[in-house]
Amino acid sequence: MSVRKSDYEIDSVYLERWSPRSFSSKEVKENTLLSLFEAARWAPSAFNFQPWRFIIARTPEDREKFMSFIGEFNQTWCKDVPAFALIISKLTSDSGEFRSHAFDAGAAWGYLSLEATRKGLITHPMTGFDFEKAREVLNIPEDYAINALVAIGYQGDKDALPESLRSREVPSPRRPVAESVFEGAFGESLK
């Protein structure tokens, strides 16, 4: 049961999903891991273009490649992560610039994260890495945007984290709906 509370009735999976940093090194079975990408596959996208792509790392060799571009702070907690997924999105379609590539990739990430929660897994998205080094190391073409890197696995013990991170190992709150939703124009409160 989640410690988070919603303002309006929603499915509990939304409240249970959060981004822990303490990962167990327990391997995620292939079928379980790929079910997350199956969920992401069904996300909505403009013109059904599906601009998202995922580059995963689940072998020791591939995880080591990913660690080469992960920032120093994130390396302090993600050394035991059993799987990573780099989310990229295609910037162009046959018609030219594809303006909603990041929006659509974000929807796919959302679906992936919720399916992970349903499967008893945790995810932690991050942008604390060297985007250009990731592009180089993973041979990502220039017509793909790099959006985020996601750690995927099972939750570990918070005591395994550096002491400075242990107090942060709790679900974060959210601002009330009324502070995020305007009616009629920007800054206009709900009526």
From TrEMBL:
Bias (Basic and acidic residues) ranges: 163-172
Domain (Nitroreductase) ranges: 16-70, 73-154
Pfam families linked: Nitroreductase
Top-rank taxon, per record: Bacteria
This protein's UniProt keywords: Oxidoreductase
Region (Disordered): 163-191
Gene Ontology MF term list: oxidoreductase activity
UniProt keyword annotation of Membrane present: no
Family stated for the protein in its record: Belongs to the nitroreductase family.
Name of the featured protein: NADH dehydrogenase
Source organism of this protein record: Heyndrickxia ginsengihumi
Phylogenetic placement of the source organism: Bacteria, Bacillati, Bacillota, Bacilli, Bacillales
